[in-house]
Amino acid sequence: MADAKPVSSHAALYASDKPALIAHLLLLALSLAPLVINVPTNVNIVATAALAVYAGSWRSVKPAPPTESMTKKDAMRFPIVGSCVLFGLFLLFKFVPKWIVNALLSLYLGGIAVFILTSAILPYVLDFFPERIQHMEIALPRIKVPHVFDNSDGSMRPTVPELILATISVGFCGWYYAKKHWFANNMLGLAFCLEGIEHLSLGSVHVGLILLGGLFFYDIFWVFCTPVMVSVAKNFDGPIKLLFPRSGVLEDGKRPFAMLGLGDIVIPGIFVALILRYDVKRNFRSKYFRSAFGGYVAGLAATIVVMNVFQAAQPALLYIVPCVAGAVLGHAWLARELQPVLSFSEAAPEEEGKEKEGAAKQAGEAVREESKKTQ
């Protein structure tokens, strides 16, 4: 369970609760709207993804820097690891009955979704609980569910509000996995997005650009060069994508939907959030967040336009990455602040030290090897 924190923790640097709260309310309203009215699908996709990035970015603004962040090596390995996982899922769907794969993955994601949904909601409802029980802890049984839940050491002591919200989350996840309703799918998917953008840190702008560059080519390859990405997205019946109802004729008796993968929100979203924290650190003397966020909206809109023109699936990062990175770097170049922006880092000191120590060790080994050769 997430640690109970006062809702005002964000406001120590800036009134970030207000923009995040407004974005959450708009996001909820936009998610509910298709249940009662026809919302243009393309507008819905862009607005939902933009609000998720905006809300997640503001949620990430905290007084203390992140305790863990991605390193340069992590960023370089990420596309390779992602490719292995994606291709592994493709093979599973190809050689194992689809319902078995989805059942196992649903069980795994369902356990995680309870924690994610609880953590996503908690900061905005905590103040509605009586103050005397807001931080009252309850000891959980010492049990372990491999890869999902581990309290064998008794260290997990959730608060009363967390337990209440977790119970509601269990019911909501149960409804989703029983009915597979697109609204429930989107609520869980958005919770994953918000928590991912809030808690994942790239560490530095330099590392962020490496990650975006690697995933730019990853997305192009798996969408344009193989059927793998599209096949997995269509076969995977879980909250790894957002579904947007289309108006028109039913397909095989079912309502047609447009899809947007969570990666197309979270990956650029964590970079946009990093740029917002850079602005916060400079007391908003710069406006790079506006450029980054505007670049994301423009890149996603370009994806939709090209998709409609060619009537084919598009790798969203092909358009989003150049727009986001180009907007930030172009802004920095025009402001003559390219070097300060590129050198911005919020990685924990010990992580930076480990990375430098590893680089120094590799350099030392290279020198020793070279000296052996010369001898």
Automatic annotation (TrEMBL):
Its main location: endoplasmic reticulum. Residues 366-375 have a biased composition (Basic and acidic residues). Residues 346-375 are annotated as: Disordered. It is found in: Endoplasmic reticulum membrane. GO terms for molecular function: aspartic endopeptidase activity, intramembrane cleaving. The chain crosses the membrane at residues 25-55, 75-93, 105-126, 159-178, 199-224, 257-276, 288-310, 316-335. Keywords: Endoplasmic reticulum, Hydrolase, Membrane, Transmembrane, Transmembrane helix. SMART domains: PSN (SM00730). GO terms for cellular component: cytoplasmic side of endoplasmic reticulum membrane; lumenal side of endoplasmic reticulum membrane. It comes from the Eukaryota. It holds the Pfam family Peptidase_A22B. It is a multi-pass membrane protein. One of its GO terms (biological process) is signal peptide processing. Belongs to the peptidase A22B family. This is Signal peptide peptidase. The lineage of its organism: Eukaryota, Viridiplantae, Chlorophyta, core chlorophytes, Chlorophyceae.
